[in-house]
Amino acid sequence: MVATPKRVLLVARLAPPSPLVAARRTEGLTKYLARAGFDVTVLTSSISGEGQIEGAARVVRTPDLMASGLNWRRGHFKALTGEGSSSYGKPSRLEAVLVPDVAAATWLPFAAGRLPKVLRGTSYDCMITSSPPPSAHLIGLAATGAGFPGSPNFATDGATSD
What integer is the mean pLDDT of 86-113? Predict the structure, then answer.
């Protein structure tokens, strides 16, 4: 008797082919979960680029306003990924005190909107959310409202919640 593989939904804004560290984490999780016999679906942003991710049975890329013409800081993102020669400018007074999670406005609405479609017709055994940005973890909360079985369990700095 062949066991049905456990299904994992991995939610991460950054994924391959982006060279950023967070994308490499997504790449490693996907690859090694698949090697361990898991069926992995990745819900990610188009900001990371296009294409398959090694080990993923399915990759769902959603729009992201950071990849659109509305992003006046595209040069900064290109510098961060090594694609451009732009450099960072001095932060505004507001940015010096408050570090906004821009993805909460640019990606999260698209990811949350796509979530019911991703969940429809597939029974996932587990959801993993990976940051940055921290707002990626809000997809876990949205999933409970979209019919994902179970409830999110958050842990930070070694502390666990029951």
Answer: 74
Phi, psi dihedrals of residue 33, rounded to the nearest 5°: -65, -40
Question: How far from each other are the two terminal CA atoms of the chain, in whole angstroms?
Answer: 35
State whether the Cα torsion 11-13-16-21 is positive or negative.
negative
What's the CATH code of the domain at 106? 3.40.50.20
Residue 53, domain member (yes or no): yes
| Number of alpha carbons in the 13 Å side-chain half-sphere of residue 25 | 14
The region, left, alpha or beta by phi > 0 then psi within -120 to 50, assigned to residue 55 is: left
Quick: pLDDT tens for 20-40.
889 999 999 999 999 999 999
2 φ/ψ angles, rounded to the nearest 5 degrees: -90, 125
In a domain, residue 42? The reply is: yes
- Per the structure, the complete domain to which residue 110 belongs is given by 7-64+102-145
pLDDT in tens, 125-157: 889 999 888 888 888 888 877 667 665 555 444
- Specify the number of domains making up the chain: 1
More confident: 92 or 120? 120
